[in-house]
Each structure stands twice: as C-alpha cells, then as structure tokens.
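Working notes for the structural subgroup meeting. M.R. asked for a predicted model of this chain before we commit to crystallization trials. I am recording the input and output together here so anyone reviewing the notebook later can reproduce the run.

Input as submitted:
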Amino acid sequence: MSGVTYGCQSAAIKYLAKLPTVQVIWARFLVILAVSTVLCISKGEPFFKKITARWEIVFRCVFGIISFLCSTYAIQHLPVGEVTVIISTAPIFTAIGSKLILKDSFRSVHFVCIILCIVGVIMVVDPQQLMQRSSGNILAISVAILQPVFKSLAYIFIKRCNNQGIQYHVVLFYYALSGFAAATLSIVVTGAFLLIAGKSVATVIQPTNQFDNIALFSAGVLGFIAQFGINKGAMLANTTKCSLIRNIDVLVAFLFQIFWFKEVPSTIQIIGSAILLSSTVLVVVWKDKSAAVKDT
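Returned structure, recorded in token form:
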C-alpha cells in the first residue's frame, strides 16, 4: 500500500512542478497534520503528553522532513522515474545505519550491494546526458542522491520509537506537525528576505485551475496513506525489508513517467534501474537467508 501511494504521490508532485517546492511541502503536511490529528483523537491519544523518547521523535521528524524536501525538489526538476530509482537505494543505507545505530549485523554482501548501488546510480543519471544538463539539474541529481541517506535514517528512528513503546500514530502526528511548522516558517522567512532584498520572486503561487488544487490535496492524502503505511510497517516488520517493499513505487513512478509525462528512459537507465533494484533485493534476501540459518 505504501509503495503504490508513494508512486502516485510522486506523480502528483511532478504535475505540480510549476509551484514552489516549499508550497507543495506545506500543503502536503497540512493535510497529513489534519488527518493524523483526527486519528489521534479517535485513538484517545492525548496531545503533547510527556514522552520519554523525545530525541527519537526529534530525529525521526528532522530526517523525515529533509528526506521529503530532497525528494520533492528532485521530482519537480527531474523525470519522476529516474528520481524514484535513485531513492530506492535507501535499503542499502538502512543496512549501514542499522549496524551503527540498531547494532544489526553488517556483512560483506552489504559492501557488494553498495558497489552495485553506486554503479546503478551512475547509469541511471546517465553521465553523457549529465554533462549536457544545466547546473539546476545537477543540483537536483545531487539532492536526489542524498535523499536515500536521510530516508534510511528516518526508517531507523521510526524503529527506535517503536522500541521505546511510542505508537505509530503519535509519531506520525509529530512528524506532520513539525513539517507543517517548518514549511510555514520557511515561507514566511523566505518571503520576508525577498521583500527586503527587493526581489519579486513569489514563495507561494495561486493555483491556476482546479486540477492544481486537486493535485495539492491528493499529494497530502496520498502522503498520509504512505506515511501511515511506512510508520506502521517499519514498527512491525524488519526495517530493511520494509524499506525494500516500499520500492514498488519505482514501477508505479516509471509507468507515470512513460504514459503520463511522456519521458521515456534510455536503455542504459533501464539497465541501471535493474542493477539498483537487484542490489536492494539482494540485501534483504541475504539477510533473511542468514537469519534462517541462524534459527536452525
């Protein structure tokens, strides 16, 4: 569920490329905050109660917000399928982070997968085309490559929150609240700075038609469903496996890229995508295999 909705959300964000990135982020967090508030009320969860694992929630929110900022900017400036494939490398970084933070094992197969991951990313961004791109697109690619690092850290701290007994809907509420506050502050501060500087660049643009409004609302609703699934899943299942299963959004994003946005990937990008997905599958399959041998 989370993977499919993430793919659809990416398509909605790509459609909204004409709007400022922070405006899209603000609208998404507003919807997620509203729905997560209703969810907490329905669960009888008191707001702002004393929480023992404060830093776990803080880090989950910070890394999650940065992760979504990176993916939104990259999706708005690059083909959605290309960005989604790069983002799909998160399980590799999750395996590394799990070793450092959760004290999980790190095997030689993980190192091999990291090498495959690097090769796959190079093929997906297509160096020959990269040299012909503007500095804006190079920045977008750099941001997309950084996104999986922050996303994997967000997964890990969701798991830490679960280990501390914090319910998934509470984590989701604080994530939405902090994201909405950060986006609002960003719009206000950026607008004030541009006003003082005498520049006429708008931080918020009025949607020109109803489809823009529908896309903004859909991005928020799909974002909530995706976050609900990933928060609930990461707390119940293996962290690395959860991040891999979410990678079904790669297929969804490529379908949107080809049939809606008419951006057909090159052969080398398709091969690179296959290498990336194979490396993430190998991480989880090998880990499960090792766990099964250990249990026997």
